[in-house]
Every structure is written in structure tokens, then in C-alpha cells.
């Protein structure tokens, strides 16, 4: 009996230590709730373990070299796991970090057409160092403070619309049209594929569970939808939309939900350290390489700032002035995500808006982030099993979370057009251009100009003018790069 009592006391002591360190009770959460939220965040983000290697491994650099898929899978899980755990311990916020989709696409489509992969990852490392310096010196926090409260809320709402749109696109609910309008419903204006029906089923199920306040509703919905998808695939034998050999336009978006032939795969870390800090400057010149770094910094800086703003607000952690706990530490660790990501050739790792699914499930502290990070580390060994979860199931969770975030628009006073127009532009630009940074930039510039031209120039913080000028350069970087190249 004494041994049992001692074991109970030890467990209670450890539980109390976790509670105090992460402020779990203080934030109205529980260890069970944090674990559940961390798992849901990982499930919502897990597709990056498969998608990041597909994006980065699908492009050859200027020298004709490409990155190995298996090695990319390993470093994607490794960096996401390490940086998310570090973020959870230092920032103690329930945000998951992983390879940013905007950044990896930019590297694969644009940057490696001018430099090698090693050079490109070297530029990502430099970008990360700059981000860390801006965070450590307080410059990033100062810029954050200069953003008007209405724009901070608009960023949250815009991110809600953005991640909902991501969910619609990933599920095939919204697709491109060969001609005419930019987007359409499903295929040829109707929902005609089984994977999209799985998304609709998951969306309705998660919506009902959340509306009825069922604990674990999002996770339950994803699991049930995955089981349904496996059953459907067993009979329908569908392919995938992006299959390079036999694409199936009515198939699954990323991978077919089938039980894999193997569950465990040993990771290959051969890409760690495969970067060159000076190669890009040597190959395309100092000015052109500097312009690439400028683009990376702006994208990294404001995507992350916008994501953290929206997630912190969704978790109820923002104060009245829009701040959130340990903001400087959060900015520094997020910058380290770019350094680690570039150093391992996994691309820049940044705060993922998809982790809002974990927040919606109740995550409020860094313990949830640690759980997500541990699962990312395990994903290095169980990547075949993770591929079983169809993107359509996770996409439904994103739409539900997006709906939750959009409700915060009620806190914005839209009666003053000086406020309503920049707010509106911020919200709609994010989903329509598929970029958080673009929405923030358009919002900043329009806010500054409209207030200045309507006798309210004194209400615009000088830092907002500086950042707006930077965004002007960011938006015209194409012509500037062309001039520098000439």
C-alpha cells in the first residue's frame, strides 16, 4: 500500500509540475484536454509530412538535381517535431510548426530555377537568422504593436476564410475551371467524386459534434471519416488527382486511404547540413540574391505574425491590446524554424494555421504543442501509416475551424469606412491570393493611405508607414528583380 501511495503522490507531483509550468489550470484547460488538442492539431497538419516532399522533391534545380523523397520525408518530420516542441516549451503556446506551404512552393517553383537546392536552402537559413534577430531585438514585437486593433481582428477573420478555402480546395469541393470563372463547385459545377462526398460527410459530422459540444468532436469526426474513406476505397479502387502516371480527376487529393504494406520505415537524414550560405550570392549576384532573401523574410515574417495573431485570439490568449503571452520568445523560436528548416533542407518551418483545429478541440498551452511535436517525431518512423488519413478528412476540420474564427468579425466597428475598407481588403485578399502576407500588406497600405488622405494621418503609427513601404517593394518585387537581372 505504501508503494501505491508513493506512486500516486509521484504522479500527482508530476501532474502539478506540468500544470504550473504550462499554466494549464490558469488557462482553463486540463492535461487530458491538452493531449487531445495536440493530437487533433497533428492530425490536421500531418499531410505536410507527405505534401512537403512532393513539392520540394518534384522540382529540379538549375543544375538538374532534385531532392530525395524519402530523405525529405524524414527531415520534414524531424524539423517540425523539434521546433514545435521547442516552441511549446519556450513560448508555451498551443501552436504547431511545420514546413510552410507558401515558402516551399516559392522555393520549388521560382528560386531553384536560378540557383541550386543547396543555395536555396542557404538563403532560407539567412532569412531565418534575420527573423531571429528581428524577434530578439524587439523590432518584430514593435511592428506587432503598431498594427491597429481592427486590423488584428481582420487578420484573424481573414485567416479563418483562408483556411476554410484551403479546406474546400484540398477536398475538391472547389476546383479550377478550364475557362470562365476562376473557381467552380466540384467537377463541372457539381459534386461528382466520392472523396469530396467523404469531405461533405466529415464536415457535417464534425459540425454536429462541435455544435453539440461533444469532447473530441473534431478528432472523432476525422477518425470516422477516415474509416469511411478506407471502406470506400476498398470497393471503388480510386486513384489520386496528382498521380504523375495515371491521374484520376475524381480520385483522392493526396493519397488513397489504404492500409499500407508496411507500417514502419526507418528515416534517412542525409539532407541535414546540405546547404550553402554563399552559393546563391555567387551564382546570381548580390543584388538578385538579396531580393530573394527580402521576399523570403517578408513572407516568413508576416505569414507567421498573422497566423499567431489569429491562433492566439482563437485560443482566448490575446489581451485587449492584441498581445499574447511570451510573444518575444514565440517570434524567436519561429525564426529558428526557418534556420532549422533550411539547415535540414526541409524548407522554412513556421506556425501552421491548421493547428487551429487543436485549439478548437481545447488546446490552450504549450503542452499541446509538445504533444504535436512528439507525434511529428514519431511520423518519421510511421510515415506510411500517416498517409492513410485522406486529406479530405482533415480538410473538413479546417472549414469548421475557419467558421469559428470568422465569428470574431463582430468585434470590429464597420460603421467608419476608414476602418471597414482596409478590414475588408485584409480579409478577402488572403483567400483570394492564397497568402496571409498579401492580405496583411494590402490591409496595412490601405489603412495608412485612407487615414492619411482623410485627415487622420496622426492615427497611423510611423512603423506602419515603414512596413507599408516595405510591402510596396514586396508587391513589385517581380519588376524590380527583372530590372536587377537586366
TrEMBL record:
The record's subcellular locations are: Endomembrane system
* One Pfam assignment: Xan_ur_permease
Transmembrane domains' residue ranges: 37-57, 69-90, 97-115, 121-139, 151-173, 193-211, 218-236, 284-306, 327-346, 366-388, 395-412, 432-450, 462-484
Whether Membrane counts among this entry's keywords is yes
Gene Ontology cellular-component terms for this entry are: endomembrane system; plasma membrane
* Main location group: membrane
Instruction: Show the GO MF annotations.
Output: purine nucleobase transmembrane transporter activity
Q: Which UniProt keywords apply?
A: Membrane, Transmembrane, Transmembrane helix, Transport
Topology versus the membrane, per the UniProt entry? Multi-pass membrane protein
Membership in a protein family? Belongs to the nucleobase:cation symporter-2 (NCS2) (TC 2.A.40) family. Azg-like subfamily.
**Record-linked PANTHER family:** XANTHINE/URACIL PERMEASE C887.17-RELATED, XANTHINE_URACIL PERMEASE C887.17-RELATED
Question: This protein is called what?
Answer: Putative MFS transporter, AGZA family, xanthine/uracil permease
| Protein's organism | Brevibacterium siliguriense
Amino acid at each position: 500500500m505504501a508503494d501505491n501511495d508513493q506512486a500516486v503522490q509521484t504522479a500527482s507531483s508530476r501532474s502539478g509540475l506540468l500544470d504550473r509550468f504550462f499554466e494549464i489550470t490558469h488557462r482553463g484547460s486540463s492535461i487530458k484536454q491538452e493531449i487531445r488538442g495536440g493530437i487533433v492539431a497533428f492530425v490536421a497538419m500531418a499531410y505536410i509530412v507527405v505534401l512537403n516532399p512532393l513539392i520540394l522533391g518534384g522540382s529540379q534545380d538549375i543544375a538538374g538535381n532534385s531532392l530525395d523523397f524519402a530523405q525529405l520525408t524524414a527531415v520534414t518530420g524531424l524539423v517540425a517535431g523539434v521546433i514545435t516542441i521547442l516552441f511549446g516549451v519556450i513560448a508555451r503556446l498551443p501552436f504547431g510548426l511545420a514546413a510552410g506551404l507558401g515558402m516551399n512552393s516559392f522555393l520549388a517553383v521560382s528560386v531553384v530555377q536560378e540557383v541550386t537546392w543547396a543555395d536555396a536552402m542557404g538563403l532560407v537559413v539567412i532569412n531565418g537568422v534575420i527573423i531571429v534577430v528581428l524577434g530578439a531585438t524587439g523590432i518584430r514585437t514593435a511592428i506587432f504593436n503598431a498594427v491597429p486593433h481592427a486590423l488584428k481582428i481582420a487578420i484573424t477573420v481573414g485567416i479563418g476564410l483562408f483556411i476554410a478555402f484551403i479546406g474546400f480546395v484540398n477536398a475538391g469541393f472547389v476546383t479550377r475551371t478550364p475557362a470562365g470563372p476562376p473557381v467552380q463547385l466540384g467537377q463541372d459545377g457539381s459534386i461528382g467524386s466520392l472523396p469530396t462526398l467523404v469531405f461533405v460527410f466529415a464536415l457535417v459530422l464534425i459540425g454536429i459534434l462541435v455544435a453539440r459540444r461533444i469532447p473530441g468532436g473534431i478528432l472523432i469526426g476525422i477518425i470516422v471519416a477516415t474509416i469511411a474513406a478506407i471502406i470506400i476505397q476498398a470497393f471503388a479502387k480510386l486513384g489520386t488527382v496528382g498521380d504523375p502516371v495515371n491521374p484520376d480527376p475524381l480520385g483522392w487529393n493526396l493519397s488513397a486511404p489504404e492500409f499500407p504494406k508496411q507500417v514502419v520505415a526507418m528515416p534517412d537524414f542525409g539532407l541535414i547540413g546540405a546547404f550553402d550560405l554563399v552559393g546563391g550570392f555567387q551564382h546570381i549576384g548580390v543584388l538578385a540574391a538579396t531580393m530573394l532573401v527580402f521576399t523570403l523574410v517578408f513572407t516568413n515574417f508576416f505569414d507567421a505574425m498573422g497566423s499567431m495573431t489569429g491562433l492566439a485570439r482563437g485560443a482566448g490568449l490575446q489581451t485587449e491590446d492584441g498581445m499574447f503571452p511570451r510573444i518575444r520568445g514565440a517570434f524567436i523560436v519561429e525564426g529558428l524554424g526557418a534556420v532549422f528548416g533550411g539547415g535540414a533542407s526541409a524548407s522554412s518551418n513556421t506556425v501552421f494555421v491548421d493547428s487551429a483545429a487543436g485549439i478548437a478541440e481545447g488546446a490552450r498551452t504549450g503542452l499541446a504543442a509538445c504533444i504535436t511535436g512528439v507525434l511529428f517525431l514519431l511520423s518519421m518512423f510511421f510515415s506510411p501509416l500517416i498517409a492513410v488519413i485522406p486529406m479530405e478528412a482533415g480538410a473538413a476540420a479546417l472549414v469548421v475551424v475557419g467558421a469559428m474564427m470568422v465569428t470574431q468579425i463582430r468585434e470590429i466597428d464597420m460603421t467608419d469606412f476608414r476602418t471597414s475598407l482596409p478590414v475588408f481588403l485584409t480579409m478577402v485578399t488572403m483567400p483570394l491570393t492564397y497568402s496571409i502576407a498579401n492580405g496583411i500588406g494590402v490591409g496595412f497600405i490601405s489603412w495608412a493611405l485612407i487615414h492619411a488622405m482623410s485627415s487622420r494621418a496622426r492615427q497611423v503609427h510611423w512603423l506602419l508607414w515603414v512596413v507599408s513601404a516595405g510591402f510596396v517593394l514586396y508587391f513589385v518585387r517581380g519588376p524590380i528583380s527583372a530590372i536587377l537581372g537586366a
